[in-house]
């Protein structure tokens, strides 16, 4: 789908610092002279952001069915790919995305218990063979990550309000996916101070850029 641009994703559970480090990755890439598009999932487009609101709204007057949640996520992803990610990659821009399909396998597959073959079927339908060129997995113990979420002092969304066992399953699934695709993933210890985490990300990203440029 793309010949010039690169697709980089940041993954991890709630509280690991993805949003903060998306900015760092974009800054490093722009310093290398690349056009960079920063985006997020679910969301990234006007319609995608509207779907995000449906997904994150904790109002349980009408609980969201698990299959409905999964289909909404892929509906937002289809729009995201068609309207933002695909065109950006095709013109040679680099796309940095806060979460992508790895999150669906972790959250809806492991967390919700949805059959992973169902997710894989939707993945093939919506994105074909497209996969990120690099995925930075920010990993840390669940308890410490949840403490960070609580420290924000904001009301939890539908996912942040889940119990610890849910996030244990999410973390295991992320690590399993990283172990299954070591050429794509870089696992970053996100439990360290931000300066150490960002120094690690910077080193890994610059090493990857060197490999891509040779």
Automatic annotation (TrEMBL):
Gene3D superfamilies: P-loop containing nucleotide triphosphate hydrolases. It comes from the Bacteria. It is an enzyme of class 2 (transferase). Keywords: ATP-binding, Kinase, Nucleotide biosynthesis, Nucleotide-binding, Transferase. The keyword Phosphoprotein does not apply. Residues 10-201 form the Thymidylate kinase-like domain. It holds the Pfam family Thymidylate_kin. CDD domains: TMPK. Phosphorylation of dTMP to form dTDP in both de novo and salvage pathways of dTTP synthesis. Belongs to the thymidylate kinase family. This is Thymidylate kinase. The gene is tmk.
């Amino acid at each position: 789908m793309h010949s010039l641009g690169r697709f980089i994703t940041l993954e991890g559970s709630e509280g690991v610092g993805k949003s903060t480090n998306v900015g760092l990755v974009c800054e490093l890439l722009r310093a290398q002279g690349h056009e960079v598009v920063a985006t997020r999932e679910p969301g990234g487009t006007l319609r995608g952001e509207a779907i995000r609101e449906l997904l994150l709204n904790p109002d349980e007057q009408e609980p969201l069915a698990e299959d409905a949640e999964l289909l909404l996520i892929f509906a937002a992803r289809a729009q995201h790919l068609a309207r933002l990610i695909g065109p950006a990659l095709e013109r040679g821009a680099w796309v940095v995305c806060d979460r992508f399909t790895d999150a669906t396998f972790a959250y809806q597959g492991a967390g919700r218990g949805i059959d992973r073959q169902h997710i894989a079927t939707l993945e093939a339908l919506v994105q074909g063979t497209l996969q990120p060129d690099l995925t930075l997995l920010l990993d840390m113990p669940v308890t410490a990550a949840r403490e960070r979420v609580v420290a924000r002092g904001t009301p939890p969304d539908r996912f942040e309000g889940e119990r610890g066992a849910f996030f244990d399953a999410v973390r295991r699934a992320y690590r399993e996916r990283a172990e299954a695709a070591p050429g794509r993933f870089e696992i970053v210890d996100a439990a360290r101070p931000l300066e150490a985490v960002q120094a690690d990300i910077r080193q890994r990203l610059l090493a990857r850029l060197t490999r891509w440029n040779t």
